Structure formats: C-alpha cells, structure tokens
Task: inverse folding
C-alpha cells in the first residue's frame, strides 16, 4: 500500500512539473539577449519598425533586443536565416509583406515557405499606398479614372518601383478589379518612378505616402485614393479605392515572427508584451511618421492574415502573367 502511495505521489509530482513547465518558461523568458533579424538595410521602414519594437521590448522584458540587419535578395537572405534558426525564442524576425507574401511567388525555388517555416507572433502595423496621377490626366476620382481607362484602352500607363514590387502588383490588382487595361512601366526604385510621373511621362503611380506627400502638397501630383480598405488616419479626406471597388486592398505591412516550432508560451508572452508596446502613445506617433497605423491582435490572427495575403498575391502574380525567375 505504501509503495502504491509513493508511486501515486511520484506520478502526481511529475504531472505538476509537466503542466507547470510552460508557465515557468513563459515567466522566466527571456534569460539572455534576443537577436531580431531585419532582412533589409538600416534606415528603411522595416528597420525602423524593428528598432522601435526592440527598444521598448528590451525595457519591459529586461533583456537586450539586438537588431541584426541581414539584407540581400529582396529580403530572402535574412528571412531564410531566421527560419533556420533554433526555435527557442532567442532569434526573432521583423519582416514586411514584400518578402513574405510577394517574394516567394517570384522565384522558382523559394528558400523558405512563410506558412511552414515561420511562427507568427504579431502584426505590428500597416501603411497603405496612395494612388497619384499627373495633373494633366483629366479625372478627379477613381470612378472617373476607370471610365477614362475603359474609354481609352491601353493608352494609360502606370509606373512602379520595379517588376514584382508591391507598387507593381498593386497596379495589376487595380487593373484586374477594375477590368481595365494599362501599360506597366517599371523603374529602379521609388524616386525615379515618382520623378517620371511628375514629368508626365507616365499617367499614374501607386506609391508610399512619404515618397509623394511633398509633391502632392505642391500640386505636382494629384492624389486620388488610398489603397487600404478604409481611409487612412494620415489623410482622412482622401477616399479609399475600396469605396469604388469594394474589397480592394493593398498595404505594406510589418510583423514579428520566429522560427517554426517556437514554444507557444514564448509566442504568447511576446504577443502580450507587443500589444502593450503598440498601445504606447510614442510608438503610435513613430508609426504615424511613416504613415503607418498599429495593428496588434493575437498570434492566431497574424497567422490567418499571413495566409490570406499570401494566397491573394499568389493569384495576382499568376493572373498577371509574371514568370518566376
């Protein structure tokens, strides 16, 4: 009887240890500095998001969050590095939609599968593009632009930051949803695309707010709409394309991820702290400086959003006839 009681007590102790281990792990994490991989150079939007989050998380969790810029191959090098890291919570990734839901569809053999190889933690924020036209284009809103394109098929052209970029695919998505034809003119980056649109060499452009705000205020470009599902806080008087084309949406977004297999308790702890960080007034102000708004939400919501956006852009790439290289 005593032997059975001892065995039962031992079994109970084991159960307590097993079921309390996740709680202990979440409470003790982190116990050493955490590397935050950014797959783009310093100074860009993703880098700014990562450094803003790293500074705040280091303060609340009591460990350094060290930003490690590993740029190359359109974000693929750093993303692959993070995906192959040990899933212990001490290597994280702050990445943008371009590298996660567009880039993998543009190469024949992508080095990572974002749906399989990454553990979503949280959506940090998003920023819409703005549809701008040269002032000589005789339209005042999206409805008139679509009507003009249908009246003069193939005569309007649109600039982009380069083939396969978000600005390019946003233009393709617009063509598909509106049922119009336009000629794509790719450039090597945003500045030359904006310059040629201002010069009237191309008719229109989907661009990031910061790259065209000065030109819009000066009247060298005319803003028609934002590409988010609703009006943006930075320009509340500017309608959304979705007000004319219901369901239209194309935004640059940023999220935090870890390697697949990261402990759920660590993901939960990071998510909880990140949600607090995103609610801070100075963080919201910093995001607003880049025309971005915080998102937050649960890790499960981040995963669902990632999958939906991945599948959406996969279809746009396929339907537009872009061939993976």
Result:
């Amino acid at each position: 009887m005593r032997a059975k009681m001892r065995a039962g007590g031992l079994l109970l102790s084991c159960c307590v240890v097993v079921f309390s281990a996740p709680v202990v792990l979440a409470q003790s994490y982190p116990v050493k500095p955490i590397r935050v991989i950014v797959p783009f150079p310093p100074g860009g939007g993703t880098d700014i998001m990562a450094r803003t989050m790293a500074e705040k998380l280091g303060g609340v969790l009591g460990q350094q969050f060290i930003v490690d810029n590993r740029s190359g191959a359109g974000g693929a090098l750093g993303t692959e590095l993070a995906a192959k890291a040990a899933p212990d919570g001490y290597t994280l990734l702050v990445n943008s939609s371009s590298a996660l839901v567009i880039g993998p569809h543009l190469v024949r053999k992508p080095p990572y599968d974002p749906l399989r190889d990454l553990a979503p933690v949280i959506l940090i924020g998003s920023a819409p593009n703005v549809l701008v036209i040269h002032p000589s284009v005789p339209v005042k809103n999206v409805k008139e632009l679509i009507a003009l394109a249908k009246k003069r098929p193939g005569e309007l052209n649109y600039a982009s930051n380069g083939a396969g970029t978000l600005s390019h695919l946003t233009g393709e998505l617009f063509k598909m949803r509106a049922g119009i034809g336009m000629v794509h003119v790719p450039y090597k980056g945003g500045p030359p695309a904006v310059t040629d649109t201002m010069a009237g060499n191309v008719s229109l452009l989907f661009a990031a707010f910061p790259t065209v705000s000065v030109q819009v205020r000066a009247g060298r470009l005319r803003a028609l709409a934002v590409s988010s599902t609703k009006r943006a806080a930075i320009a509340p008087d500017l309608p959304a394309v979705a007000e004319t084309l219901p369901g239209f949406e194309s935004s640059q977004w940023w999220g935090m991820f870890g390697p697949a297999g990261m402990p759920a308790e660590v993901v939960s702890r990071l998510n909880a702290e990140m949600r607090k960080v995103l609610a801070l007034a100075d963080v919201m102000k910093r995001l607003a400086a880049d025309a971005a708004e915080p998102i937050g939400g649960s890790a499960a919501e981040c995963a669902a959003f990632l999958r939906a956006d991945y599948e959406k852009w996969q279809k746009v790439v396929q339907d537009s006839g872009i061939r993976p290289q």
Notes: The beta strands are 34-38, 65-69, 91-96, 118-133, 157-160, 183-186, 204-208, 222-226, 251-259, 293-296. The chain has twelve helices and ten strands. The first helix runs from residue 2 to 28.
